[in-house]
Structures are given as structure tokens and as C-alpha cells.
Design a protein that fits this description.
Largest sheet: 8 strands, mixed
CATH architecture of the largest domain: 2-Layer Sandwich
Number of helices: 11
Oligomer: single chain
CATH class of the largest domain: Alpha Beta
Strand order of the largest sheet: 8-9-10-7-11-12-13-14
Strand content: 15-25%
Amino acid sequence: MSIRFASIGTGWIAGEFLKGAREVEGLEYTACYSRSQEKGEEFAKQWGAQKVYTDLEAMAEDKEIDAVYIASPNALHYSQSKLFLQHGKHVICEKPITVEPEQLMELQQLAEQKGLVYMEALIGVYLPEMRILQGAVERLGGVHLARLDFSQYSSKYPAYLAGEVPNIFNPKMATGGLMDLGIYCVYPAVMLFGMPDKVSAHARFLSTGADGSGCVTLHYADKTVVLTYSKTAQGEIGSEIQGEHGVIRIPRISKLTDMTFTPVGGQPQPLSTYTDKYLQMSYEAKRFYEFITQPEQNRAQYRYVSSIAYTVSRVMKMAREEAGIHFELSEQ
């Protein structure tokens, strides 16, 4: 069964997703949207789309499009997802899928009513390595402390230092360190340990009003999970989950590559190796296709990832409120 899909956004992440989607038999890239006709044509030529749109309404009305991949600025995710769901299109949207959990619940219900798939594109959820990590955590015995970090010097930070306001550091785009990188820590925390009893957070703000770095603590009855993130410095320590029977080290929390399990008094045991990003993104593209074409066989998994997405959105909102992260939303 062929699923014809379009894309919104012409950045590097969209290209990686499209490269990964090529690994999924049945996904057919049909059209792209860009605010610039010239840029859209260039992107379409590079990735093989037959149509270029500069009008989202027109693309949503195209009956030859079954689904859409959204990789626009965060502030646009809700309205664009809603538009395409209303027009009967399946939607896979880059993280964070919406800014507010209430928006996510609304659109999940809309998709359910229309018999559509609406899912968040976040690599770690769909990777085989996540199942490996979950199994390794069970081997740890009692877990009382975990430290998850994603600190990566942003390619846009020099522009900010030069006086510019890149989208990623613009509160009007609902962006910043927590929304861009911190979510990669929140997701595994929720998938491994569930909804925390309490959330506390602190952020360091840039002159634009965006958070450049910060710390979120998830409090559970039997454990503490500390999440750190930064877009203004490069971290090298990575992440680890400490248990009574050993420790799991995760050098790259966003990709779950090169993980190791070290039992107490033992030697590190490899859990995963390096995988190219586009191949990792092929897993989310494959699940999107399977959720659409084999709904009955995948209903339980689809409901699970939908539930996780909503819980993560709740935790993200609690962290923003605790840290004083606010957005001046202005959809464009």
C-alpha cells in the first residue's frame, strides 16, 4: 500500500527524515511546502518531490496527498497539524508536537474522530535501542538516581552572539534549550520511570528571553532523575542510570548509541553501537507507515506512544512553569 506524503520545512532535519523515509517501502514523497517558491523548488529537486506549494491551504486540499511530515518552527506545529488533520491527512510532527498539552489532547481527539494517525517524531521512542535500554534498566535492580544530559553547542549560537535572533533562540517561536534539547531527556525518563510526583526546574536565560541551558529534577517516591541541557556549550560526560546492580552509561541520549552496562565490580558490556541519524529516523517513518496501513495490528503501540507524548508534554509544561520559561507566541 502506497502512502503519498508531503513535507513542511526545508531545514536539515527534514532532509534527514526524507532520507530515512526512503528506507520504508510504501512511503512515497509527493510534495513540499516552503514560504519561498525558489527554495521549495530547490528542496523538491533534491529530494524528489513532484509538487511545490507556498500555500498551506492549497496543499491541505490536495487529494493526492495522504499524509504530511511537519518540521516547521515549534509555534506553528499546532495550527499546521490541525489544518491537515481537518483535511483528512495523517500527521507526523517534529518534537515538540505542540507547545501545550491541552493542544495535544485536542488534536489527538480530532485524529481519533477522523480515523487518522497523529504522532510525534522523536527518534528515541521508536528505536530498537530503546527496548534494549528498558531491558537493561530492569537488570539494574533498584534505581535511585539517574542523570540524563543533552548539551550541544548550537550552530546558531554564534549568530546570537553577533546580535541576531535565530528562530531557535526566539521565544516567539516557542523554542529554546528545553524545547529543543531537554525534551530528549524527558522522553526516556518518562518511558523508563513514568510520570513523576513532582517537577522542579531552573533555567539560564539569554537576552532574547529564550532559555539557553537549564536543569530539571523529576522527583519520584524511590528515585531522583536529574535532567540537564544546554545549547550554549558542548557536553562530554553524557548520561547514566545508577542501579544497585550496576550502571548504564549513555553517551548520546538523543540517539541511544554506544550505550554500555557495567555490573557492580565488573567490566562494561556494550548495549548498542553507532547508527547514522537518517537510519535512526527511518524507524519513526516506518512506524508512521505501519500505524496508517495496519491500524488493528498496531493499535496498542499507537495508543502507548500517544499516551507517552501527552505525559511528556505535561512534564515539559510543568518544567517551563517552574523555570519561568514563557513564550510570546506569534504564528507566522
